[in-house]
C-alpha cells in the first residue's frame, strides 16, 4: 500500500482527495492536517510514502512545511507532492527549492492525481506540464552564471554526466537506453548512482540542479 498524508486547510478538499485516492486498491490515506505545523507533526508521526501538501494554509504554510519535511538538511526527508489552486511562478520555484518532489494544480484530473502519487512514491518526481516551460526558463536565468565553489558534477564519470544531462532534458530511462544503446536496467543503475552522488532525491531535484549550475540550457 502507498501511504499518503493529506494537508489542506479545507476539510471538503481533504475529503475529496481521500475519496479519489482510496478508490484505488493500492493507496491509503493515513493522516490529515489543516495547516503546515500539523502537516509536519502528522507526517513525522505517520511516515507516509507521499505527503500531499497545499501551499496556502493558515499559520505555517505549505512551503515552510515542505522545507521542514524535505529540505536539503533534513536527515530523513519525506517525499512531498505540492498541489495548489494557484498557478504562480513564485509558488512553483519556492516549492521545488524547498525540496518538493513534484507540483500539480488542483484542477488536475483525478487519474492524473493518482498517477502523480504513484510516481512520487516510486522515487521519481514530476511537475505539471502547464508550468514546466516557465520552470525551465526561470532556472535558465539563474544558471547564466554558475554558483561559486566546487563543481557539483565533478565526481560523475563521463557516462554518468552524459546520462545526467539527458535526465535534465526530460528523457525517460527507456528513451536514454534507446539513444545510448544500453539496457534499461543499466540506465536505471546509472541514474541511481547519479542521484546518489549529487545528493538528489529524485529526477526533479536533478533537473533543478542542472539548470542552477548552468549544465543545461533550454533548446540545447
Automatic annotation (TrEMBL):
Entry annotated with the keyword DNA repair: no
Gene3D superfamilies: 3.40.50.2300
The keyword Transcription regulation is annotated on this UniProt entry: yes
MF GO annotations: DNA binding
Alphabetical keyword list: DNA-binding, Phosphoprotein, Transcription, Transcription regulation
GO biological process terms held by the UniProt record: phosphorelay signal transduction system; regulation of DNA-templated transcription
PROSITE patterns documented for this protein: HTH_LUXR_1, HTH_LUXR_2, RESPONSE_REGULATORY
Coiled coil regions in record: none
InterPro entries membership: CheY-like_superfamily (IPR011006), NreC/VraR/RcsB-like_REC (IPR058245), Sig_transdc_resp-reg_C-effctor (IPR016032), Sig_transdc_resp-reg_receiver (IPR001789), Tscrpt_reg_LuxR_C (IPR000792), WalR-like (IPR039420)
Protein name, per record: DNA-binding response regulator, NarL/FixJ family, contains REC and HTH domains
Amino acid at each position: 500500500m502507498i501511504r499518503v498524508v493529506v494537508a489542506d486547510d479545507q476539510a471538503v478538499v481533504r475529503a475529496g482527495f481521500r475519496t479519489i485516492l482510496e478508490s484505488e486498491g493500492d493507496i491509503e490515506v493515513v493522516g490529515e492536517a489543516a495547516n503546515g505545523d500539523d502537516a509536519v507533526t502528522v507526517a513525522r508521526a505517520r511516515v507516509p510514502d507521499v505527503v500531499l501538501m497545499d501551499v496556502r494554509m493558515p499559520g505555517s504554510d505549505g512551503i515552510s512545511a515542505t522545507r521542514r519535511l524535505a529540505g536539503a538538511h533534513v536527515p530523513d526527508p519525506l517525499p512531498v507532492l505540492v498541489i495548489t489552486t494557484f498557478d504562480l511562478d513564485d509558488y512553483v520555484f519556492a516549492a521545488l527549492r524547498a525540496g518538493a518532489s513534484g507540483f500539480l494544480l488542483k484542477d488536475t484530473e483525478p487519474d492524473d492525481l493518482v498517477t502523480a502519487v504513484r510516481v512520487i512514491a516510486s522515487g521519481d518526481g514530476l511537475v505539471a506540464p502547464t508550468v514546466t516551460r516557465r520552470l525551465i526558463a526561470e532556472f535558465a536565468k539563474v544558471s547564466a552564471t554558475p554558483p561559486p565553489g566546487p563543481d557539483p558534477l565533478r565526481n560523475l564519470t563521463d557516462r554518468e554526466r552524459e546520462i545526467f544531462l539527458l535526465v535534465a532534458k526530460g528523457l525517460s530511462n527507456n528513451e536514454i537506453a534507446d539513444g545510448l544503446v544500453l539496457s534499461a536496467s543499466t540506465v536505471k543503475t546509472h541514474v541511481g548512482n547519479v542521484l546518489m552522488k549529487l545528493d538528489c532525491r529524485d529526477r526533479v531535484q536533478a533537473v533543478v540542479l542542472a539548470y542552477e549550475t548552468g549544465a543545461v540550457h533550454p533548446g540545447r
